[in-house]
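Changelog-adjacent note: as of this version, every example in the card shows the full chain rather than a window. The one below runs 112 residues end to end.
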Amino acid sequence: QVQLVESGGGLVQAGGSLTLSCTASRSFNGMGWYRQAPGKQRELVALITVGGMTNYADSVKGRFTLSRDSGKNTMYLQMNSLKPEDTAVYFCNGVTGSRTYWGQGTQVTVSS
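Full-length structure tokens:
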């Protein structure tokens, strides 16, 4: 069974930092982070390919950095200069072929 497990969420003050981790039970061609705030649709935060190319949502460019350790099937999201509007449940996913797998999510709360 394919599993993705997120960790690293929590409560932080505005301007602070958090690092999220996503560990997968297998390798994926592409991995990404999405987030969903209360009452809103899930939205893309950042993507990374197996070759290490990254793509970020405009709202997080310059503040978030995505990286992966392919040897550990783990992806990291370094989040700096956090804002209250970054508050959401953050989900990681892995894509291979036509299938997408999701983790259970980790809560990030940024207080003003």
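Structural remarks: The first strand starts at residue 4 and ends at 7.
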